[in-house]
Amino acid sequence: MLVPIILTVVGSATPLLFAALGELVVEKSGVLNLGVEGMMIMGAVAAFGVAVSTGSGTLGIVAGAAAGMAMAFVFGVLTLTLAANQVATGLALTIFGLGLSALLGAGFVGIPVAPLAKLAIPGISDLPVIGPLLFAHDALVYLSLAAVVGVAWFLKKSRAGMILRAVGESDISAHSIGYDVIAVRYRAVLFGGAMAGLGGAFLSLSYTPLWNEGMTAGRGWIALALVVFATWRPWRLLAGAYLFGGVTILQLYSQGAGVAIPAQVLSMLPYLATILVLTIIAAGPWKGRLDAPACLGKPFRPST
Questions:
Q1: Which end of the chain, C or N, has fewer beta carbons within 10 A?
Q2: pLDDT digits (tens, 9 = 90+) for 120-136
Q3: Partners of 118 in the beta sheet?
Q4: Mind giving me the DSSP string for 38-53?
Q5: In angstroms, rounded to a whole number, what is the distance separating the alpha carbons of residues 292 and 280?
Q6: Model pLDDT, residue 149
Q7: Phi, psi dihedrals of residue 140, rounded to the nearest 5°
Q8: pLDDT digit string (tens) for 260-276?
Q9: Are the C-beta atoms of 68 and 193 separated by less than 8 Å?
Q10: HEC-encoded secondary structure of 139-181
Q11: What's the burial of 6, exposed, middle or buried (CB within 10 Å: 0-12/13-18/19+)?
Q12: What single DSSP character describes residue 107?
């Protein structure tokens, strides 16, 4: 049973990894976007609607990323251009996304769609254990792993990544030496929206290839918690996403095995784990070493 369990964990972790990785970049720039859930659900409905209408999963993926970016752009205009409160705007974005997705997706309920094709390699994918574990996933799974490598390199090695981190640590200093803080943060916010949209697209096109209202089921909030759990480091985020994916799957296998625990309690496991981890981090001896960006959540108004 080990191989199917691991494959299920990978599927459960991938949308979390996409959304959390995008939010990590956003927060590294000093912006706190709590609208991840809203961007994910809009990405899910846009991806599913386009895939059903065109018959192309690739166009569906692109539409999911675009929908997430569109939601992120609204957030950026309100918080970066108009200097609205980031927390309130992010919460409003989630509520708006959940409502709008339910409206747009009403006509797609109950319509099946072919799941994304697996990138099987003849001869290799058929190998026992190794084949299905490494060479039998769809493109979005591999893209999520490549994104971790790309974001880690970008933040650590690239000049643009260092500028983004500088903006998140001291926006006034970055502005004083000539960097456009608002432009840097806009790009980060749009990237975060695209990644959340891809997470939603994976849910509706691969994980459960159908559309259901509210199908993100709180994954956006778990993604936000994962960023703190990973202390804003991409590699720790990868481990955390798969850990939380495993907790999510644990409830399903426990129910299938007939464990004498109420189904409602098992359904709460991922969220109980999230609360527990955040409590331990906040109260533990490593509290002072979280390395949160110094300007996180603080508005910036460029001086004239």
A1: C
A2: 777 676 677 777 778 77
A3: 138
A4: HHHHHHHHHHHHHHHH
A5: 16
A6: 97
A7: -65, -30
A8: 667 677 667 777 777 78
A9: yes
A10: HHHHHHHHHHHHHHHHHHHCHHHHHHHHHHHCHHHHHHCCCCH
A11: middle
A12: G
